[in-house]
Amino acid sequence: MKIRIILADDHRIVREGLRAILVDQPGWEIVAECGDGRSAVDEALRLKPDVVVLDLVMPDLNGIEAARQIVQGTRSTRVVALSMHTDRRYVTRMLKAGARGYLPKDCAGEELVAAINAVVAGKRYLSPGLPSVSAQSVGGLKDGGPATAYEVLTAREREVLQCFAEGHSTKEVAALLGLKVKTIEAHRAHIVEKLGVRSMADLTRYAIQEGLVSLE
Question: Strands, E, within the chain: which ranges?
Fold first, then answer.
């Protein structure tokens, strides 16, 4: 079966390793490689692959927001998350964003192949290496529970938060997102109000805590 795949991870060596595993599969093709979430979204919308293998923490746009935009912007592309984060909250958020599979980065190559085959067949794949996520909790994702502070923010506000946490100035964030400076300032004010933080340092700590940015 022919399967077209995009690899999105900010570490080149990881992408090279994934490519080496996947290109051995008959009919499988790596159509693009991306080092940040925004490029992954752009390439997915342009190429409309069968699968995007996506890291959770990436610059410019994190994997959760990238997955959300890819799923909303394409009809048939499936997202498989491959991440070092195995905590239930990260898995839950990724699945809520529309990902069909989630695996830890220390999984075997054969498991990634199995996951891709599963999601292409219309199934959901959760690695057995995710002990904190049960079938019951996945089945109840849409039912939710109390909203977290992360969920209180809009998708745009989460993008703005990540940009600020990565050290960009207000003007730089406006340029990156194609918005006016006053619009970014308004978003920042809403973020501060919703999260109850007082400084940019608090915003950065929160973004790291929520897995929007890494300490690297």
Answer: 3-8, 28-34, 51-54, 78-83, 101-104, 125-126
- Strands of 3-8's sheet, edge to edge? 28-34, 3-8, 51-54, 78-83, 101-104, 125-126
Higher pLDDT pick, 104 / 134 = 104
Q: Please tell me the distance from the alpha carbon of residue 111 to that of residue 144, in angstroms, as a whole number.
A: 28
Determine contact, residues 69/77, Cβ cutoff 8 Å: no
Which tokens hold the place of 106? 């220390």
pTM of the model: 0.77
The sign of the dihedral angle between the CA atoms of 127, 7, 51, 61 is positive
Domains of the chain: 3-143 (3.40.50.2300), 149-209 (1.10.10.10)
The pLDDT of residue 147 is 52
Bridge partners of 79, per DSSP, are 52
